[in-house]
Structures are given as C-alpha cells and as structure tokens.
Design a protein that fits this description.
The structure is a single chain. The protein is an alpha+beta fold and 322 residues long. The protein is built from seven helices and 17 strands. The protein has two domains: 130 residues, D-amino Acid Aminotransferase, Chain A, domain 1 (2-Layer Sandwich), CATH 3.30.470.10; 166 residues, D-amino Acid Aminotransferase, Chain A, domain 2 (Alpha-Beta Barrel), CATH 3.20.10. Strands 8, 9, 10, 11, 12, 13, 14, 15 and 16 form a nine-stranded mixed sheet that branches. Strands 1, 2, 3, 4, 5, 6, 7 and 17 form an eight-stranded antiparallel sheet that branches. Helix 2 packs across helix 3. The chain is globular and about 60 Å long. Bound molecules: 4'-deoxy-4'-aminopyridoxal-5'-phosphate. 4'-deoxy-4'-aminopyridoxal-5'-phosphate binds next to helix 5.
C-alpha cells in the first residue's frame, strides 16, 4: 500500500514475493525512516487460523510512525493487510503446536531526495515466513551480557518505537555479548547505567516467589505486546504483578539472598525464554539454579495455550481468520 502527500493511502496490492527496486537517493537509505512490526498466525487445535493481538501491533505501528514523522496507517488497514496475506499463504501456516507463520509488516520512505526532512511518499508492505518452534529439544535458558558501554535508547530518543535504527545501533553490543560468550544483551538506562530496561529483542520479568515485576515503560524501552499480555495472564493465575524499577544491584542482591527466584524474557519470537546466567564487567552470576523456573514455564504454557487454541481465549486476543 502506498501513501503520498495529498492523496493518502492508495494502491493496496497482493503480489508475489519479489525484490523492491529503490532509487539510490531513496530517503530511507540515508535518513532511516523505517519502522516495522512482528506478529504470528497460528493454526489452532480446531484447524482454524488466527493471529495474536494484531490490533496491538497496529496501534504500536501508529505510535512508531508518529515518532518517525511518518503517516499513521489506519488500524483496520493494517489488520486487513495481514489477513489478506495470511489467507493467501494459508498453506504455509504450520499445523503443529508452537510453529507459526511470522508476519513482518513494515513501512519505509520512498521519496527521492537528499534533504533531511520527512518524505512525502511512503510504502507499507507485509511479508511472511514460516517459523518453527523457537526451542527444538526443550526450553533452554539464555546467558546475558549487561551492556554498560553501549546504550540502546536515551530519554527523548526512539527507544519506544520499533524503528530500524534502534536495531542498527544495537548490533555492536550484541557482537560484544557474543565475544563474552553470551547469547543476548541486556540494556541498561542511558542516564545512570543502572536500571534494567530490556533484552535485545525481548522484555524482561523478575520473579520473587509469587510476586512478579517487569521494568516500567520509561519511554526508552519497547512496549512489548507479550509483556502486556503477561501482566494480565500472571494476574489471572493469581500472582502479584507490578511494573517497577529494577537495578543491577537489585538483580545481583536478590539473586544472592535467594529472594529473586527466576528471571525470564518475553517477546513474539520465543514467547518466553528463561534467563540462566548473567555476565557484566563487575560480576557474573547464575540466576536461581540456572534452570527454567516453575513460574516461567507455567506462564509460558498459559500464553502458548491461548495462542494455539488449547484453552479459551478469555481476553479476546485471538483474531480469527476462519
Ligand atoms: N523489545 C524489543 C527491542 C523488541 O524488538 C521486541 C520484539 N518486538 C520486544 C521487546 C518484545 O515485543 P513483543 O512482545 O511485542 O514481540
């Protein structure tokens, strides 16, 4: 679907997958007006296909567009475009359990020009790819590197938007994590380098027995849809849930005195991943006993059961395509 100044959204087309042809002076290539989303379509136990919370993705996409001075795509247009692609690719939606069809909606500037200003033309596209279960052979805890040298997002920056530049800026820290033998980066706040924000592509949760805490939305971390869903699911399951501030010292001390029992990360790709160990310039430690925790696995199952249709969708999160 295209957008241009004075015309608005027009020319919705469903076309076979093919390369895009871009002018070398396309404004996206130089000034990075590029935003995206990620969501999944599941084939459910009863044979129907449904996407998980596409409205939430559509609304976050609008928020990202506002931050990047791009036009907002109407929520219904976003959902209709995803639906049309899933219907077309229905045969590619895997039919077993956690496997899904991953959808990647994105928007880029398409005007040609070298001046730094918002483009007058945009292109919205959705592509799809089948995704297997994230963990084959059992859920495996990840090891994380606390990034003190690099920050992902600063107050007033684009951290709460899902824009391409955030990921470009994170690659060097991800490479550093890999050098330290870790799977993922954990980002700290930009000002004090003390408060836990999020992981590379996932939000974090800290489990203190029956009490569960997730870092509050400060404006510099992504408001994850899995994060928001788990706030509700954890409450449904009777846990005491809160959004708050957790520092590196809180994590280390809670771990040392045993009050912090589990830590997990959550996002569309892996749903829930236990965090098994932490490395930083100051200290390394194992989280709990280093194995997937009971609360982590219970929440993981509760969310997946909704997504795969094993239990009733009491929150109205599944968008049925028939
Ligand atoms: N943080 C970042 C930086 C991400 O890229 C993602 C993945 N979209 C998340 C958190 C988790 O968000 P969601 O639950 O909506 O997938």
């Amino acid at each position: 679907i295209k957008w241009s100044e004075g015309v608005g959204w027009h020319e919705a087309q469903l076309v076979p997958y093919a390369p895009l042809s871009l002018d070398p002076a396309n404004m996206t290539l130089h000034y990075a007006q590029a935003i995206f989303e990620g969501l999944k379509a599941y084939k459910r136990a009863d044979g129907t296909v449904a996407t998980f919370r596409p409205r939430a993705n559509a609304e976050r996409f609008q928020a990202s567009a506002r931050r990047l001075a791009m036009p907002e795509l109407p929520v219904e247009t976003f959902i209709d475009a995803c639906d049309a692609l899933v219907r077309q690719d229905r045969a590619w939606v895997p039919s077993s359990g956690e496997a899904s069809l991953y959808l990647r909606p994105f928007m880029i500037a398409t005007e040609v020009g070298l001046g730094v200003r918002p483009s007058n033309e945009y292109l919205f596209v959705v592509i799809a790819s089948p995704a297997g279960a994230y963990f084959s052979g059992g859920v495996k805890p990840v090891s994380v590197w606390l990034s003190e040298e690099y920050v992902r997002a600063a107050p007033g920056g684009t951290g709460a938007a899902k824009c391409a530049g955030n990921y470009a800026a994170s690659l060097v820290a991800q490479a550093q994590a890999a050098e330290k033998g870790c799977d993922q980066v954990v980002w700290l706040d930009a000002v004090e380098r003390r408060w836990i924000e999020e992981m590379g592509g996932m939000n974090l949760y800290f489990v203190y027995g029956d009490k569960i805490v997730t870092p509050e939305l400060t404006g510099s971390l992504l408001p994850g849809i899995t994060r928001a869903s788990l706030l509700k699911i954890a409450e449904d399951l009777g846990y005491e849930v809160a959004e708050g501030r957790i520092s590196v010292e809180d994590w280390k001390n809670g771990n040392a005195d045993g009050s912090l029992t589990e830590v997990f990360a959550c996002g569309t790709a892996a749903v829930i991943t236990p965090v098994g160990s932490v490395k930083s310039t100051r200290a390394d430690w194992t989280v709990g006993d280093g194995r997937p925790g009971e609360v982590t696995m219970r929440l993981r199952k509760a969310l997946l059961d909704i997504q795969t249709g094993e239990v009733e969708d009491t929150h109205g999160w599944m968008h049925q395509l028939g």
